[in-house]
Amino acid sequence: MTSSSSHALLDNASHRDLAVVTTAGAQWGDGVMGCLVVPSEFRAVAAHYPIVFRRDGQTGRFAALALFGFEQGENLFLAGDRWDAAYVPMAHAVQPFLIGRTRDADEVPQVHIDLAHARVGAPGGQRLFDDAGAPTPYLAAKAEQLGALDAGWRATPAFLAALEHHGLLEPFTLDVPLAEGSARSLVGYHIIAEDRLAALDGAALGELNAQGHLLPIYMAVAALGRFADLMARRGRA
User: Fold this and answer.
1) Would you tell me which of 152, 159, 202, 211 could form a disulfide with 40, CB atoms 3.0–4.6 Å apart?
2) What is the pLDDT of residues 100-137, one digit of tens each?
3) Under DSSP, is residue 124 helix (H, G, I), strand (E, B) or coil?
4) Rounded to two decimals, what is the model's pTM?
């Protein structure tokens, strides 16, 4: 992520020749510990990353995150100029593009771009529009991804509310061994409380299933197995 931003509505007049770097690298904003994820992508996320939940200290609301490392600035999936996983969570993959909204909730969301992002305008980038001003396949794919992410954001509050309603989140601490023999504690996160999930009666499980929440809950549980993979990556780093 960049320290500053300059968001603009993307259009083929102002941004006809604009290009965006598509390779991975810390210099392009990929040196991050994790990113927000939405329940609709939990199955894909769980194949590669641990999923945890964090409560905002100001609002008290939870958010779901995929972890790429154990400390700020650490991304254990960076391998030179590529990302060493078949799936990159949408909130990170769409950068430097953003969802733009007007005050009219019924209007179709617009594609915005952060012109201050390191990926924008750097040499060797992917063009957003062709010579005729039509979106390139790259931009079309990003716009589709933004649409999926937008739908995911809209569905997330109901999912998180259901977790809290059924008491399915519990604090989580993990000791991460360091090379010199000491350990670092990963704190401040929550995970799905498996014992409480197992204790839910048929009515509660049926309700969660009918609301579309049960599958992402089980995917979040399964994703905890990825902590072993993440620690193995740490050991090889």
Assistant:
1) 152
2) 876 666 667 789 999 999 999 988 999 999 999 999 99
3) coil
4) 0.91
C-alpha dihedral, 36 to 38 to 43 to 44, nearest 10°: -50
Neighbouring C-beta atoms of residue 230, cutoff 10 Å: 21
* Residue boundaries of the structural domains of the chain: 7-236
Tokens at 202, concatenated: 């048929």
DSSP state at residue 71: S
* Between residues 193 and 103, the one the model is more confident about: 193
C-beta neighbour count of 199 within 10 angstroms: 11
Token pair of 234 as six digits: 């740490």
Contact 141, 170 (CB under 8 A): no
* Other Cβ atoms closer than 10 A to 24: 19
Q: Which residue has the tokens 């049960």?
A: 214
For 51-61, give one letter per residue: b (16+ CB within 10 A) or e. Answer: bbbebeeeeee
175's tokens? 């000791």
Using DSSP, state whether 75 is helix, strand or coil: coil
Task: Give phi and psi for 105, each to the nearest 5.
Answer: -65, -20
What residues form DSSP beta bridges with 161? none
**What letter represents residue 172's amino acid?**
F
Asked if 39 and 64 touch (Cβ cutoff 8 Å), the reply is yes
Helix-, strand-, coil-residue percentages of the chain, each rounded to 5:
35, 25, 45
- 12, 143 Cβ separation under 8 angstroms: no
Output the CA–CA distances (angstroms, integers) from residue 134 to 15, 128, 170, 189, in the order listed. 11, 8, 49, 44
